[in-house]
Design goal:
Immunoglobulin-like; 4-stranded mixed β-sheet; about 140 residues; about 25% strand; globular; alpha/beta; 8 strands
Length: about 140
């Protein structure tokens, strides 16, 4: 095989393999503040100012939830979760039917109006350590 033929073959193979990876990465690359891997929120702790929105985005292939631990809510703060349930218990119960799920490529947004530290979790992956924290500074 001559050098030119070899280089053309290697270049084509690299382009083909790179194109596949690029298209998979682009399909799962959603803008937001907190991403979701298979079993973690990234970053695990995120700091915002009062009145800011936080956008969670699912860039993994698994369905996830964002559910506040009610006990961590500051006085006067609204409970937050995907599916817009009123309580942590209601969100947990609804998960049996996969209600409140964020599928791959979807986002969830919440505005934080009260300063404090808010702990939250993913219902199906909580036991695996998928927990996060939002710090809202006044």
């Amino acid at each position: 095989m001559n050098r030119r033929g070899f280089l053309a073959g290697v270049g084509a193979a690299a382009l083909t393999s790179g194109a596949g990876c690029a298209s998979l990465g682009t399909a799962r690359n959603v803008d937001g503040d907190v991403g979701m891997t298979a079993t973690a929120f990234r970053p695990a702790t995120f700091t915002v100012a009062v009145g800011d929105d936080v956008v969670w985005y699912n860039n993994s292939v698994r369905a996830h939830s964002v559910t506040a631990y009610e006990k961590s809510l500051s006085d006067g703060a609204d409970f937050f979760c995907t599916g817009d349930f009123d309580t942590e218990a209601a969100a947990r119960e609804a998960w049996d039917g996969m209600r409140g799920a964020i599928d791959s490529g979807e986002t969830y947004r919440h505005t934080f109006e009260v300063p404090g530290t808010y702990d939250y979790f993913c219902i199906p992956h909580e036991q695996g350590g998928m927990v996060g924290q939002i710090v809202v500074e006044g």
